[in-house]
Give the backbone structure.
Amino acid sequence: ETGVTQTPRHLVMGMTNKKSLKCEQHLGHNAMYWYKQSAKKPLELMFVYSLEERVENNSVPSRFSPECPNSSHLFLHLHTLQPEDSALYLCASSQDLSLWGYGYTFGSGTRLTVV
Amino acid sequence: ELKVEQNPLFLSMQEGKNYTIYCNYSTTSDRLYWYRQDPGKSLESLFVLLSNGAVKQEGRLMASLDTKARLSTLHITAAVHDLSATYFCAVDMRSNYQLIWGAGTKLIIKP
């Protein structure tokens, strides 16, 4: 399997639930990212990991908790979310943080609905 | 703060017509990316523009970058229905690893 794979594709959760999103990349990339895409808003960078170390947390609420156990896997743990957190969550990877000439490779996303 | 503005945000056009999507950004950068997103799908990389005057073409799409004007264009020639999608530009600040994204242009091409 190649590219960036995200699971699940769709997730409906209650505000009191705990769930996790998973991302896996088979590209040998060293950097991985979580993005949030909401309707009518630009993509929002949430977290950045380089070689399993978090290098950016863009003022994301603590109800979102990332985990990067190795350079191929990235998780986003969710708990006590709000309805406004409903969005498409995209995982991306890049060769490294410089993005030089390549940009990101995106996963297919997880469509999250909080009820 | 870097801002990236795309226009138009929505475009409905007939097959066979030509049109241009504009991406303006507010501060110096010489790296810009164009992505395509189909409904409910992920973002697909279209073009990477790495210098002033860069021009890239793929099929009916052509992208260019003018770093002095802080402007990139995505030109569509003789549009076909399969090009219906949302197109995003993203500017690379180079000083960090973030891309700053435009809001996207939703393109609908009618037969």
Observations:
- Chain B touches chain A through 22 residues (CB under 8 Å).
- DSSP finds no helices and eleven strands in chain B.
